Amino acid sequence: MKTITYACVTAAFCGVLWGAGATMLRAQDQELSGLSIDLGAGSDDENAADEAPQGPWPKKMLNDGQPDVQGIWDPLVSLGCFAGLGPGCITDPPDRKIPYLPWALKRKMEAAVGTLTPNAAQMDTRTRAWPDGVPRLNYYTELQVLQPPGAVVILYDVHHEFRYIPLDSRPHLDDGIGLWMGSSRGHWEGTTLVVEVRNLSDRMRFSLGGDFASDELTVTERWDFVNENTLQLSATLTDPKVYSQPWTVSSKLSRDEDPTWEIMEYAGVEGERDAALMLEILENVDEEK
Amino acid sequence: MEASGRTILGAFLLALLVAGSFVVTSVDAQVARYEPPRTVDGIPDLQGIWQVMGSANVNLLAHSASSDGPAGESVVEGGVIPYQDWAAKKQQENYADRQKLDGERNCLLSGVPRATYLPHPFQIVQTPDMVAILHEYAHMQRRVYTNKTSHLEDLQFYLGDSRGRYEGNTLVVDTVNFNGETWFDRAGNFHSDELKVEERYTRIGPDHIQYEATMTDPKVFTRPWKLQLTLYRNIDPKAQILDYQCYAFEDRTPGMTVPLSRQSPLP
């Protein structure tokens, strides 16, 4: 009974967080209109060709030599990715499971159960409107790609997170700095942006299913801008502390059809009440006993 | 004799001019003198990691040191915020209850122009269509559209809705559509949802920006008023925006009051 109650709250908080804060109505419209369910997103790219517009790609090169891929890109939401990383979005290894080491699998399963309880140690970071990190933000929120000289900047809608990805060959940060969005270094291979992300916080969660990594995680992303309308994204996670081998999660995004669309302010923490609400429900359940 | 008189008059006028130029404040002289580099897109280049000095975030007006922060001189022109009578009382109430009411203490989005003088760095990046301001504080992002678009209608935001343009070497940003829930500082200085802010960003040297913000809010103030600050570039070649997700600190989050007996920390 408890679990069912928590599940309801969890379903509610997803909606609440999407629409939280000052932009509630607009944000909800946006999520609903942009929400196309594609269970196979990321695992197939054959229909990319169908969407390919005519003409050369990239349409132009920027003054600093980058291919111009700027614009707002919408994820083709994979339910598998959102609820817990499953076959819908894991493209490697072939069994499409995260290759957890035995101790780590145990912890993941505990967290998967704990994510639906108001347990300080196990509650999903999303429930508190905390940052999602990389790659979780890549597979369920619209994002805007900006290309100022010498860098690629990703502006995410959810949690007003951003990433500044320098394209020079500057070294990574020192070990010992854990950041919610990590620290990114990138370079272009044709129209594919290759990014290495380190210094990610070990408090990060990848899904509602309690998926996690340690502070030794390295994420290698490939932002493959296939054509004017299609972005094929993959992230390979390497973490010898937690996984027996590297594994890859893939997702697909399409260019927002409305060229005048703007990302709205996302006020998440400002409207966050779910952790307290879940705690309140737990108290009530205990009193009824 | 006549020629000599003209010479004396000319010298006198020249002396006046020279004297006058010394009267001009040093910052204004620098603004006029410095020609900033341009980005590859031909825009006055404001890019880099910037931060203020001083304690404007504690109180925009002159203040002594306290548990709220260090002492500081006024950054407001004339040293006064021209409140209407009711608003002056309201500011006093805010001040008395600042521990509870100030959004910064709860790590909420800070509003504008406060975002600029929070004691945390921010990074400016520019494309022809947008100036993005990326803040270390709570990962706030400000999107200043420079693509000649208009403000949105019937929407309110913590950070407002910013549209900008370049006037010579100066980036001018108009921000409206505030939700009226943010303050200017820790001292309870406040505004309503009718606030309009005009910011002016002007490079005055390789590593300095002169920053001005003019606030207009007929609900709260008797006239527009202005603050002025200097932004300093972080010149460390390793500098980058890290994070200050203060809302995710353990002691700030509702739900963190879970009784210990219910916790089963992971190995």
Short précis:
The complex is a heterodimer of chains A (289) and B (267). Chain A is an alpha+beta fold.
Tell me the fraction of residues in β-strands of chain B, as a range. Answer: 15-25%
Number of helices of chain B: 5
Q: Assess the beta-strand content of chain A as a share of residues.
A: 15-25%
Percentage of residues assigned to helices of chain B: 10-25%
- Tell me the total number of β-strands of chain B: 9
User: Structural class of chain B, please?
Assistant: alpha+beta
Descriptive account of the structure:
The complex is a heterodimer of chains A (289) and B (267). Chain A is α+β, with helices and mostly antiparallel strands. Helix content of chain A is 23%, strand content 22%. Chain A contains six helices and ten strands. In chain A, helix 1 packs antiparallel against helix 6. Chain A is globular, with a radius of gyration of 19 Å. In chain B, 36% of the residues are buried. Chain B has a nine-stranded mixed barrel. The chains are: A alpha+beta (289), B alpha+beta (267). At the A-B interface, helix 5, strand 4, strand 5 and helix 6 of A face strand 2, strand 3 and strand 4 of B.
